[in-house]
Amino acid sequence: MTEQVKQPDFFSELTRELRQAGTDLGTLWRGGGISLRNWLRQARHTQLDYVVLPLGGPLPERADPPRGFIERQLPLPAPPLSMEVVNGRLRAIADANNVKGVVFIFQGFSAGLGTLQNVRRAISRLREAGKEVIVYTPYLDMAHYYVATAADKIIAPPGVQFEVLGLRMEAIFLKDALAKVGIEMDVVQISPYKTALNTLGQAAMTPEEEEQLTWLLEDRYDMLTADMADGRCLSQGDMQSLIDRAPLFAEEALAEGLIDAIAYEDELAYLLAGERESQS
Fold first, then answer.
1. At 98, is the secondary structure helix, strand, or coil?
2. Using CA atoms, how far apart are residues 238 and 236, in angstroms rounded to an integer?
3. How far apart are CA 271 and CA 101, in angstroms?
4. Residue 140 near residue 232, CB atoms below 8 Å
5. Strands (E), the chain
6. Do both 90 and 120 map to the same domain?
7. CATH no. for residue 47?
8. Which residues, in sequence order, are CB contacts of 130 under 8 Å at separation 6+?
9. Of the given ranges (42-51, 206-215, 220-229, 251-260), which has the lowest mean pLDDT?
């Protein structure tokens, strides 16, 4: 039996290449327009004060491939903002002499700890470049507050609560559930600390697994509270004491130095303008 190899259709390939060329040209055109406007602002010595950047979502490392023509016509949600794009924007801001700083508007993170650490380091690099960084966040839980403490100032809306409540872990054990359907997992465990298959071979957490998870939580908690305390110019002990007292109302968080101001998002421009006038 002879296998026939299907040759690529010439017109389909041409259409695909033209579509990609159109996407690349559109991106280049938009980028050129932005560069031209920025050059004109710099030539006129226009001071931009703060660049406002919404930030949230899963924040994947790399941006999605450009969407084709048909995809752009559909009512699809916008692709998630990537760390690649965020870092590129922040590098451009760091190099801009006519920009005073950045106002980040947190819109809800769904990223893991590694990504949040990357965001925090990006904010720190921006500050090292001499830019002022302000975070406006309607969330004061562990994830958002950890990132926010890398900034110069934290602003939260009225009614928000400081809800950094510590860390927790959950484990699922299926031995008893599997037994009800006649399934039993045969696990050969060479060490009580080899707990990868405890989910299927145990009915409850073993002392060794609890010891490991406790160590991991304590180590991570120590790292997080140390970074947050350093960002807010507090001792680590004071930061941990405030976490033990949580939840705290916004006014209490302000009094304890956990945040710098209370305002609604539409009041940010007036708040920052007032600070600039008082400094001048």
1. coil
2. 5
3. 15
4. no
5. 49-57, 99-109, 132-136, 153-156, 161-162, 248-249, 261-262
6. yes
7. 3.90.226.10
8. none
9. 42-51
pLDDT digits (tens, 9 = 90+) for 94-136: 988 888 899 999 999 988 999 999 999 999 999 999 999 999 9
Phi, psi of 162, rounded to the nearest 5 degrees: -75, 110
Three-state DSSP class for residue 199: helix
| Higher pLDDT among residues 179 and 36, named by residue | 179
Range of the domain at 51: 42-62+75-165+246-280
As given in the structure block, the two tokens for residue 179 are 């037994």
The pTM of the full predicted model, rounded to 2 decimals, is 0.76
Contact 116, 143 (CB under 8 A): yes
157 is a domain residue: yes
**Residue 106 and residue 201 in one domain:** no
Residue range 167-180, pLDDT digits in tens? 888 888 888 888 88
